[in-house]
Specification:
Six copies of one chain form a homohexamer.
Chain A lengths: L3 H16 L4 H9 L6 H14 L6 H14 L5 H13 L4 H10 L1 H4 L1 H19 L2
Helix pairs in contact in A: 1-3, 2-3, 4-5, 4-6, 5-8, 6-8
Chain lengths: 131, 131, 131, 131, 131, 131
C-alpha cells in the first residue's frame, strides 16, 4: 500500500518525465544538492507532485497561468520564465497563446513587466527556430 | 469607415457588456471620473478593448491567467482579485479551476500569496452560495 | 561648530516642523520607541534630514515622486500613501496633480496599484472636505 | 523501511506538533481542504517537513529569517507575519530580537514595510500581554 | 468630427514625436508587432495618449514620478528605467533632479533599489558624456 | 560630550571597519558621491550606525536575516545579495547556514526567488574557493 507522501514525489517524477524534461531532477541535483541536500527531490515533489499533477486543471492552462505569474513577478524571474515558456510549449500551448498571455499582463503588472516578458519569449522562440 | 482606435474603445465596451458587467464603465465613471476625467473610458479601452478581446486566447483562459497574476502580486490586490474571480466564473471557469490556479501560485509567489488568494476565493464563493 | 551628522538630525527636525507635522517625531516616538529605542529620531534623521531637505529638488516634486513610488509599491503601503498625500498637499501640490501622479502609475505598476492609489486619495480628499 | 518522502510529511507533522501548534494541519484542513483537497498535508510537508526541520540552522534563527522576509514582502502578508511572530516567540526568540529584525528591514525593504511590520508585532505582543 | 478614441492614439503619437523619440512607435513595432499584432499602437495610445499628454501635471514632473516608480519597482526594470531617464532629460529635468529623485527612493523602496537606480543613471549619463 | 547623531555616523564607521570592509565608505564615495553628495556617509550612518550596531541581535543573525530578505526581494537585488553573503561569512555564518536561509525562502517568496538566491550563493562561494 502506497502512502500519500510516497506518491507525491513519485507523481512529480512521473509528471516531469512525461510532460517536461526526463532528467530535470538530475539537472537540479547536480547544480544544487551539494549546497542544499535533497533540494532536487524536494522541488520535484512540491512543484510537480503537489501542484501540476493535481486534478481540476489541465497542464496547458496550468503552464499559461505560470507564464502569467512569472511575467508580473518581474524581469528578475527571467530564467524561470524562459524555462516555463519551454514547458508551456511542451504542454501544447502555441506561440500566440503564450504571447497573448504575457502581453495581457501589462494590465495587471504594468508595461515594463510585460515588455520584459515578451523579450524572454522572443529569446525562447528564436532558439527554437534556430534549431 | 471605422478607425482602429475607435474600435478599441468600442470593442472594450462590447466585451464588458457581453462577458462581464453591462454597466462596468458607468460604475467606474461614478467612482473615479470626477478625480481623473476619462478614467473609466480609458480603463475599458485598455483592459478590455486592447487585451481581453484580442484573438489567440479564449476569455476563460485569460481570466485564469489574471487570477494567477493577481494572486502572486500579493494580498494588496485582494479587491481586484475578487472582481476577477467573479469575471472568471462569468467566463466559464468553475470553482475548482479557480482554486487550482490560485493554489499552484504557492510554487511561484510563495505560500502567503497563495493562502491570501484562497481566502479571497472563499469569500467570493461564499457570497454566491448565500444568494 | 556643528558636525555634519548633527545637522542631519537637526535638519530633519526643522524640515518636518516647517513643512509637515510639528510633532511628527513625538507621535512616532510614542508609538514605536518603546519597541525600538531611538526609532523616531532615526526616521526623522534618515527620511527628512538625509533626503527631503537636500538641495536639487523642491519639496513638492519630492512628495509627488513619493506618492508615485508608494502607489506602485502596492496597496499594502496604503497607510503611508495616505500620510504622503497629506504631505504632498502641505508641500503645495493640488488634488489634480496628486490624482494625475497616481493614475499615471497604471502604466508602470498596473491598474490594481493605480486604482488602490486613487482609493487612498479619495479618502484623504474626503476627510479634508469633511473638515 | 521508511521512504524519504514519507518522512518528509511525518517530519513536518512532528516539527509542527513539537515547536508550533499541535493542531496546525487540522486548522488548515478545516479551512482549505474542501477547496483544495490535500492542501493542509501538502503545506505541512513542504514548509515544515522540507524546510524548518532541516539540519544546519536552528529553529529560532529560521523563524527570525522568516519574520525578516515577511516584513520586506510588505504589509499584505500581515496575517502570515503575525503567525510567524508567534512561531518565533515559540521558537525562543524574545520581543527585542523580533523587533530588531523587523526594524532592520527598513534598510532593505524601505520604511513603509518596516513600519507595517512593527505594527504587526505590536498587535501580537499586545495580545500576549492581554492574556 | 474626431472621436475620443481617435484622439487618444493621435495625441499619443503627437506627444511621443514632440517630446520623446519621433520613431518610438516604429521601433516598438519592429520589435513586438510580429509577436503581438498592434502592440506598438496600443502602447503609444495607453502610455502617451491616455497618460502623459493629460492636463494637470507637466511632462517633466511626470517623468520624474516615473523615474521614482521604476526605481522602487526594482532593478528588474533597469531597461525601462534607463529609457525613462532619457525621457526625463528630454522633458527638461537635469542630472541632479534625476539623481535626487532616485536616491530619495531609498526611504521607500530600500537601499538596494536606490543603488540599482543610481547605477542605471550613471550609465545613461556616461553615455551622454561619451557622445 | 558627543551628540546622539554624531555617534550614529561614527558607530556606523566603526562597525563597518571592524566587521565588514574597512574602506566601504570610501568605495561608495568614489562611486556615488559625485552624483549624490554625501551618499556614502549617509548610507554608513543609516545602515550600520542606525541598524547593524544596535543592541538586541547579534551581527551574524542580522546578516542571515538580511540574506533572507534580499532573497525574497527577488533576483534584481543579486548584487546586494552577493555583498551581504560576503558580510554574513565575515560575521561568522558558514556556507550551510547561508544556503539553508536562502532555500527556506522558497516557502515565502516562491521557488524562483530561492533558486536565484542559491545561484548568487554559488557564485560567492566559488569565488572564495578560487582564491
Amino acid at each position: 500500500m502506497e502512502t500519500t507522501d510516497k506518491s507525491a514525489l513519485q507523481k512529480g517524477r512521473d509528471y516531469a518525465a512525461k510532460n517536461l524534461t526526463p532528467n530535470l531532477e538530475e539537472i537540479l541535483g547536480e547544480r544544487y544538492d551539494d549546497l542544499v541536500p535533497g533540494m532536487s527531490e524536494s522541488l520535484i515533489e512540491w512543484a510537480y507532485g503537489r501542484h501540476y499533477c493535481r486534478d481540476g486543471l489541465d497542464p496547458k492552462t496550468r503552464q499559461l497561468c505560470t507564464v502569467a505569474a512569472l511575467t508580473v513577478l518581474g524581469g528578475q524571474t527571467a530564467p524561470q520564465l524562459k524555462i516555463n515558456i519551454e514547458h508551456a510549449l511542451k504542454s501544447g500551448a502555441n506561440k500566440q497563446e503564450i504571447s497573448e498571455t504575457i502581453w495581457q499582463m501589462a494590465v495587471y503588472g504594468g508595461l515594463p513587466a510585460a515588455i520584459n516578458g515578451l523579450n524572454a519569449a522572443k529569446e525562447v522562440f528564436a532558439s527554437h527556430e534556430a534549431q
